[in-house]
Amino acid sequence: MVPSPAQAPGHPARHGAPSPGPGAGAVRPGDLPAVHDMLVGVALPALVVSPRHGQLTGAGLEGVFLAGRRLLARSVLRVAGREPVPLRGRSTAADRADFLAALRAPGDTGPDPGLVVERSREADGTERITLRSSVARPLRLPVELALGTDLADLGPVAAGRPGAELSASVHGTGLRWTADDGAAVIVSADPPPSDALAAAGLLRWEAELAPGDSFTLTLRVRGERSGRPLGASSGRPGGHVLADAVAEGDDPRLGPLLRACVADLRALLQRDPEHPADVYLAAGVPWRSGPVTAEALWAARMALPLGTRLAATTLRALARTQIAGTGADSGRIPGPLRDAGPHLPPRCTGVEATLAFPVVLAEARRWGLPEQDLAELLPAAERCLGRLRGAVDASGFVPDPWPAGPARAETQAHAHRAAVLGAELLDACGRPGGEAWREWARELRERFRSRFWIDDPSGGRPVLARTVDDRPLPHLGGWAAHLLDNGLTVAGCDAPGLLHKAQTERLARLLATPGLDSGWGLRGLGEKEPGYSPFGHRSGAVRVHETAVAVAGLAAAGHESEAAALLRGVLDAAEAFDHRLPEMYAGERRTTGALPVPHPAACRPAAVGAAAVVQLLTAVLGIRPDVPGRTVALHPLRSAPLGEVRLSGLRVAGEPFAARVGRLGLGMVEEAAPGLQLGV
Questions:
Q1: Mind listing the pLDDT tens digit for each residue in 63-117?
Q2: Are 220 and 187 in contact (CB under 8 A)?
Q3: Which residue has the higher pLDDT, 491 or 674?
């Protein structure tokens, strides 16, 4: 059964965060530790969270984690009895952070630091520390690392309930800690320490430095249980799941941005525990790296230009959760309830996933999904369509959550897209029912255009939802972007839209107003709407996924100026976030010299944040593949809002694909699979 509203998550749980229990200590129930300014390294199932000064103190969520277990909570460096002065900390790769610090040499009286300390910490727990001397005399310095851990689970740590620090024992060239359940962590050092004090968790070295010389030590952290590596069953995915896409052009930010986003997507890949050959994206870290979710499916859809394998394995993982049999729930993909803002009860992510399944499969087919994958996944898509048929209420709309929730406009958009692309999928695979679904979609469009639109002298506006007692809720927000998403970016410009032309034009103008466009992207709820909050997950924060959907939908519908404004806003925000977009950030109005404000509970990196960049850049070129029809077309933004843009290393029909749009807005395919023709 769909969870009841009483089971709906509160503020932290709507992002998948653990719910604190009694005795949460300094963190109140519902609070999350601040990590938005931390340096997060990810290579799931490994994760490291470091403060910018580089010392792990065990505070909050700091530490090295593996498979949801904190292997190392403390790693505090002292040289000659003093902690180095931090100068810089930054992420240098998806799984690594580098730190720079300095300190004066013993005996020096001036202010200049003669010693530089470089630290590099990776998600798997490997840490390299290098001490460099510019002192004109030889030095002999004691170097000390204070280490500690509680081997606590990520959930209690995030809830402010870390475990008691464990006692260490000397083990080989380092230390070992063992928990009551038999889990253990071992830290080894190279070179071996000159002294190890297990009771204090200390490793000590004597570093001898000639003028201009350096001393390097390496720590390695590993977890185990019963002699086997901890988390071994969920090791890093192998193979080439995502292509090495490259962006070039007049805007120098595009290359680093796409490179960082592809790296983040790879870092978020994790295996299905029961079927290790299948991988999917974690929704985000540190809060949501559990089972496959609707966000993983949306991200796989946006990442289709990087190849179809991720979409196929994500669909397989979701198909295994699909409810079988012939009952009322048959064909439904389960999913938890999520907060929906101040005006609606929680929505069901299972409804999203069920309606998105046939869409992603149809679009993956257009990008070149292998026939064997299509044949394997088609029955699950048919069951999703069957569930859609059985979910329609007496008014002809799809309630969310099923079976007695309100009829949300966003859900009707998902249902319409599922029917349109599901019909195409059934026809292409020689299955019956395509014409019936096209007719159903046509009837839904007619109902929607009259029942979910309020006319007024300014041109009208869409309705957020119709309540169970059929009251319209007119509150406008970024959710309206989904009304423009009907598969145009794949299925071709003749695909029918949920809105008619005049309504589409009006919505495009509304999305461009300052009330919705914050300057950094679309607000989840308009600035002038009741209940607006710049930090509200569904009531004012900028959700990157919605903004990317809006850019692609507006571009496909010919509203280039509105699409370009949103595109530039998100790219500016990405630059401010060091090319690692969170899933959302505050909807504060952009002002001169200001930077986007992070949301304290947002996942970063996040699957939809990273994949959105792929969708945004491919929307600039307007790539429309039809591999079964042996064509690929370009519908670039003629205004060339980013100047010249070239994308290479994409995948169409499983082969490399490259295209560019020039400063005059003319597109050109430079590389494509043999036999693909340039379409229109």
A1: 999 999 999 999 999 999 999 999 999 999 999 999 999 999 988 878 899 999 9
A2: yes
A3: 674
- Dist. CA 124–CA 146, nearest whole Å: 19
Both tokens of 273, joined, read 């525990």
In the block, residue with structure tokens 């359940």: 181
- The strand ranges marked E within 273-432 are 275-281, 337-338, 347-348, 407-408
∠ CA 357-363-365, nearest 5°, is 105
The span from the CA of 155 to the CA of 325, in Å, is 35
DSSP state of 12: T
Distances (CA, A) of 672 to 635, 649, 676: 16, 10, 7
Structure tokens at 236: 């890093």
Domains and CATH numbers, the chain: 45-234 (2.70.98.40), 246-678 (1.50.10.10)
3-state DSSP of 572-612? HHHHHCCCCCCCEECCCCCCCCCCCCECCCCCCCEHHHHHH
**Which two structure tokens, joined as six digits, stand for 40?**
């997060």
Q: What is the spatial distance between Cα 212 and Cα 219, in angstroms, rounded to a whole number? A: 24
**Nearest by Cα to 64 from 95, 88, 90, 86:** 95
Q: What is the b/e burial string over 624-644, where b = at least 16 CB atoms within 10 angstroms of the residue's CB?
A: bbbbeeebbbbbbbeebbbee
Q: In what order do the strands lie in the sheet with 69-72?
A: 39-43, 46-50, 63-66, 69-72
Continuous segment of H or E residues that includes residue 380: helix 371-391
What's phi and psi for 424, nearest 5 deg? Answer: -60, -40
Q: Which of 65, 45, 78, 43 is nearest to 185 (CA)?
A: 65
For residue 359, which of 453, 486, 445 has the smallest C-alpha distance?
486
Q: How far apart are the first and last CA of the chain?
A: 46
Helix (H, G, I), strand (E, B) or coil at 367: helix
Enter the tokens of residue 494.
Answer: 């003749």
Closest CA to 299 of 616, 607, 604: 607
Q: For 571-628, what is each residue's pLDDT tens digit?
A: 999 999 999 999 999 999 999 999 999 998 899 999 999 999 999 999 999 999 999 9
Q: Are 669 and 632 in contact (CB under 8 A)?
A: yes
CB 564 within 8 A of CB 550: no
Whether the CB-CB separation of 273 and 265 falls below 8 Å is answered with no
